[in-house]
Amino acid sequence: MSAMLANTRTRSDEATAVVETPRPERKRIIIIGGGFAGIAAAHALRHADAEVVLIDRRNHHIFQPLLYQVATAILSPAEIAAPIRQLEAKRRNVSVLLAEVTAVDVASRTIEAASPGAGVHKIAFDYLVVATGMRPNYFGHDEFARYAPGLKSLADAEMIRAKILGAFELAATTEDENERARQMTFVLVGAGPSGVELAGSLAHLVKVTLRGNFHRIDPSKSAIILLDAGNRVLPTFAEPLSRRVTRRLTKLGVKVMTGVKVDTVDDQGVVAGGKRVSSATVLWTAGVAASPIPKMLGTKTDRAGRALVDPFLKVVDAPGVFVVGDAASVIQNEHPVPGVAQAAIQEGQYVGRLIASELKGRKVKRPFRYFDKGNMAVVGKNYAVLERGRLHTGGFLTYLVWAFVHILALPQLQNRLRVQRQWLSSYFTGQRSSRLIPETNEPGH
Ligand SMILES: Cc1cc2nc3c(=O)[nH]c(=O)nc-3n(C[C@H](O)[C@H](O)[C@H](O)COP(=O)(O)OP(=O)(O)OC[C@H]3O[C@@H](n4cnc5c(N)ncnc54)[C@H](O)[C@@H]3O)c2cc1C
Predict the structure, then answer these.
(1) Which of 64, 197, 288, 346 has most ligand 1 atoms within 8 Å of CB, for mutation?
(2) So what's the pLDDT on residue 25?
(3) Is the CB of 36 within 6 Å of ligand 1?
(4) What is the 3-state secondary structure (H, E, C) of the chain?
(5) Is the pLDDT of residue 62 over 70?
(6) Whose CA is nearest to atom 8 of ligand 1?
(7) Average pLDDT of 393-401?
(8) How distant is the alpha carbon of residue 58 from its chain centre?
(9) Best substitution site from 4, 54, 84, 132 to test ligand 1's pocket, by max atoms within 8 Å of Cβ?
(10) Second label for 128, Cα 20 to 30 Å away, from 225, 271, 348, 373?
């Protein structure tokens, strides 16, 4: 069960009896997951004559592209998240359920959802939309997770922030030179967009934000190492952009090491390419794997556990069952549709509209088409890269476009206003507003 639900568990949760939810008079559409795809599907179904049940194990939707900014103390968690209930409040046919879906039975057309304090509910569906996203993938080494957290939730981001800030506190107090160096060495495993963005932001934190805050140590002397087993950073971008990003990161003081496989992660750091790197903060930004839900559909999955769907995003041989967003493996023009927010939104919208049409007795003949609006990544302050079709560009203007696009895409007006204010303040002062170490994460605990 997720941390959010585990935290709200009460004595009455002990009851494990499965309670059956009565069937409604109208058709029932269950959406599992309130991420980009699930929210888009619910939005597209807002006028449908059906009962829509949106289930998530968290009570909030997260704008994941800015999670790295929470992890590096630029933003606080509430600025990039919104309560799912609030997002759906105006949609009269949509009800929200805080629960973790633990079973799906395609044959009996039911799911089981465990809610805090309310036990397990068995809910029948006419349509099912699976939008459960991905989780970090340690490629068969789940034991690494203990020492190298991934970045997927607000709790992960806060824990990483506490780890980074705590490392400087410990470096400033220890008398042991080797331990000080270990505390001031940060290793990021995986040089995709998350790893690159995290490394760039960390470099700015140590060079600018923490400048002058410690008398016994100089945070700008920290080592930030970005490792990847592949032969270049940002492998989904064109090679020239990749090279530009490597140069930029190097200029910011990040040591980029590609073609290096991580053999071990433990409490002392990592062993990579046969060499030990002592580090108190190892972060996992490498791979992702699908949640267990697609496997429960009894359909074929790809190597990462994503459900293979047909061109209408339907699960073959399971009428009325769809998979969207990161949890779906969608092939278009012989290439996989990327696991990005835009694709998840478009897929959610498409399936929502398709179901709404079917409810009206119309058959949808046009398969899903992904429209690629471009790929962006930010590298430290003032610099971003963009790839859109043949356009490959990078620099300050691209950074402004990135900032504008991200502000507009945030879920609520209050997120947009708050993020804008924080960015402006940190842009002009170099300071970051969210530099608190939560008490439970204090160094030594
Ligand atoms: C750190 C990071 C940075 C990223 N940066 C970018 C970027 O810059 N640009 C970009 O386009 N994309 C980016 N992405 C990718 C993008 O966020 C994903 O492609 C997108 O979130 C996928 O949307 P989704 O709805 O499929 O899944 P998600 O947004 O992950 O949502 C899945 C939801 O399902 C819920 N869920 C899962 N299992 C269950 C269950 N059993 N029961 C109940 N609820 C469940 C989860 O709680 C979650 O709310 C980034 C991702 C990460 C992690």
Answers:
(1) 64
(2) 81
(3) yes
(4) CCHHHHHCCCHHHHCCCEEECCCCCCEEEEEECCCHHHHHHHHHCCCCCEEEEEEECCCEEECHHHHHHHHCCCCCHHHHEEEHHHHHCCCCCEEEEECEEEEEECCCCEEEEEECCCEEEEEECCEEEECCCEEEECCCCHHHHHCCCECCCHHHHHHHHHHHHHHHHHHHHCCCHHHHHHHCEEEEECCCHHHHHHHHHHHHHHHHHCCCCCCCCCHHHCEEEEEECCCCCCCCCCHHHHHHHHHHHHHCCEEEEECCCEEEEECCEEEECCEEEECCEEEECCEEEECCHHHHHCCCECCCCCEECCCCCECCCCCCEEECHHHEECEECCEECCCCHHHHHHHHHHHHHHHHHHHCCCCCCCCCCCCCCCEEEECCCCCEEEEECCEEEEEHHHHHHHHHHHHHHCCCHHHHHHHHHHHHHHHHHCCCCCCCCCHHHCCCC
(5) yes
(6) 65
(7) 96
(8) 13
(9) 132
(10) 373
Beta-carbon contacts of residue 433 (< 8 Å; ≥ 6 apart): 73, 74, 75, 76, 422, 425, 426
Q: What is the pTM of this model?
A: 0.93
Please report which confidence band the pLDDT of residue 5 belongs to, taking 50, 70 and 90 as the band edges.
Answer: low
Closest-CA residue, ligand 1 atom 4, reads 65
Instruction: State if residue 340 touches ligand 1 by the CB under 6 angstroms criterion.
Output: yes
Catalytic residue positions? Answer: 197
Q: Is the CB of 67 under 6 A from ligand 1?
A: yes
With a 6 Å cutoff on the Cβ, whether 35 touches ligand 1 is yes
pLDDT at 9: 45
Instruction: Summarize pLDDT for 79-98 with one digit per residue, the tens.
Output: 999 999 999 999 999 999 99
* Distance between CA atoms of residues 105 and 22, nearest Å: 17
Pocket test of ligand 1: the residue of 70, 340, 342, 371 to mutate, having most ligand atoms within 8 Å of its CB, is 340
Q: What pLDDT score does 441 carry? A: 60
